[in-house]
From TrEMBL:
Residues 251-394 form the Peptidase M20 dimerisation domain. This is Peptidase M20 domain containing 1. GO terms for cellular component: extracellular region. Keywords: Hydrolase, Metal-binding, Protease, Zinc. Belongs to the peptidase M20A family. It comes from Pelusios castaneus (West African mud turtle). It comes from the Eukaryota. Pathway: Amino-acid metabolism; Lipid metabolism; fatty acid metabolism. GO terms for molecular function: aminoacylase activity; metal ion binding; peptidase activity.
Amino acid sequence: MAGRLRGAALAGCLGLCGTALALLAVVLLRAYVLRPAPGPRVWGRRPELGFELSARDRRELKEALRGAIKIQTVSFSPDDQNTTALAEFGNYIKKVFPAVFSAKFIQHEIIGEYSHLFTVQGSDPQLTPYMLLAHMDVVPASQEGWVAPPFSAEERGGFIYGRGTMDNKNSAIGILQALEFLLRKDYRLRRSFYIGIGHDEEIYGHKGARKIADLLEARGVKLSFLLDEGSAILDGFIKGIKAPVAVIGITEKGALTVKLSVEKEPGHSSAPPKETSIGILAGALSRLEQNPMPNMFGHGPEIRTLEHLASEFTFPLNLIMTNLWLFSPIVSRILQQMPSTNALIRTTTAITMFNAGIKTNIIPPSAKATVNFRIHPSQKAEEVLEIIKTTIADDRVKIDVQETFDPNPISPWDNQAFGVQIFRRTLLDVFPEVSSVAPGICIANTDSRHFAKLTDAIYLFNPLIIKPDDFLRIHGLNERISVEGYEKQVEFLYQLIQNSDIKKLPEPHANSHEL
Ligand SMILES: CCCCCCCCCCCCCCCCCC(=O)N[C@@H](Cc1ccccc1)C(=O)O
Ligand SMILES: [Zn+2]
Ligand SMILES: [Zn+2]
């Protein structure tokens, strides 16, 4: 009997060990044998014009950006913008980019009073046009806490400091600068393209980008791709990856902004009720913060980012990332630890405004707060609103939706995706240190969502190498760009325009079935 039991135990143990060994074999096989081959595509044609800058070009390029930063194009709220500065920005670009404004094949239109649309006519009408999008408005900046005043565009240690240096005058001015340089070298464009520069992106883009999109739609325009801000070349964001990796947004999160309010009878503070409007609202807000929206890891494109980058990770993370079918519970727990990666895997909750109270000895008649949610690509605004109501679970808290939109559809990412191949080619040309190009999610929102009817190929990417510390500067203190980084951005755009002039993508290399 005892022998039979020992035999059964041994057989059980062997079975378990066998399963463990088989699992290990699959894990190793996927990590080391079945890795997608990142083989290069064969591009016969190189950009015609190299990006060699004279000392004068360099100075001009830097001063053009610095001049733009000094114009205080601040969007405070949907009905409060610095319109004098917005108009000044229009005059400024006319002065700084004379070749762009005098070329016969470039049409310039002002849309919604302050936004700009450039139609750059290529010589081959058979080629589907593309679009480069940027915005000139900026969020407000406090005067305190900056090493140099936010609209001084001061240069320190190789960096230009100022609001808009990364978000997003670097793109607005950078695109025009790249085109200006190409025109001065008599480059004749083959593929038409549009440049859109919005003036109210930071307050939803209804009067700028939305109107540009409506106009192009009315003209029957279809785009082969659209490129806007929203992601970057990430350096040091992902534990276990040493080299910088280009993560190109193939979708952006949705958004839902709700106003919460509680009204109660005012009175003398010496005989207070059990709960005041402030206490009730604070409780509701605390419940929202303490109960984050569900972790959706694996339901959106975030998993594709990790799969693409798997072979970039050092051991043993490479084993884990190539085997997400097994390790995703661990990975999703790790991702939720840092705010920037937590934002990739769930709808985020941010309490952004709170107003209440009149005087120290008056029971507050009302308390109001604003909560801003950024919706994960696998959820819809309606579903998020239901979760909010259930979490607050208090009828005394009035919930008003201020603004909402669902996440963008997911743009194509494969060997036939024209835009993706052009970005990849251009990244290889301009940033040889970038080891991988992966699809990702833009965790914030951009003007690009207004263009969904013109193309299904919307990409969010700024050709800038950014570190976690830089990310905090966007909408924060000491926003800055390195002069070298800005030159690289202009070079990227200069080569991108030339690379896009290719008629047809080259056939994929025999080994490069995946990007
Ligand atoms: C695989 C690891 C990835 C780690 C993620 C790190 C992400 C780093 C990305 C850096 C680029 C950030 C670019 C931000 C663009 C910001 C654009 C913006 O500020 N938009 C406004 C628009 C808006 C929306 C709603 C109301 C008013 C304005 C925004 O707040 O989203
Ligand atoms: Zn922006
Ligand atoms: Zn912004």
